[in-house]
Specification:
This protein has one domain. The model has no long low-confidence stretch (mean pLDDT 85). A hairpin with a 5-residue loop joins β3 and β4. It is α+β, with helices and mostly antiparallel strands. The longest helix has 10 residues.
Length: 102
């Protein structure tokens, strides 16, 4: 089972909830000054069964300093979605980075 870690200014990060948001432009400005983040606009990987998956979205960035980057074909992606910043299934390293970003 997986989970998402959300960086938000809201009580709950969901489409239907109104309130202070983190805009895509604000996220891009943050990435521009954080030397450990790289705005790629896509995430891609090959599954264990050999299937190639790619997702394109304007706010996808990779944390370039993650210790496991490229070892298994995956990267530490973090992205903008619904006016929040999201890390899917973050490990301890990624949680520390999300805390720094927040």
């Amino acid at each position: 089972m997986g989970y998402d870690l959300h960086i938000t200014r809201r009580d709950f990060c969901a489409v239907e909830v109104r309130g202070d948001s983190i805009s895509l432009d604000e996220w891009k400005r943050y990435i521009a000054v954080d030397p450990e983040l790289q705005l790629d606009g896509y995430a891609e990987t090959t599954t264990k069964s050999g299937q190639y998956l790619r997702m394109e979205m304007e706010g996808i960035a990779v944390w370039t300093k993650h210790s496991q980057n490229r070892i298994d074909g995956n990267f530490a992606w973090i992205y903008h979605s619904h006016d929040c910043i999201v890390a899917k299934n973050p490990d301890e390293e990624m949680i520390m980075v999300a805390n720094r970003i927040a």
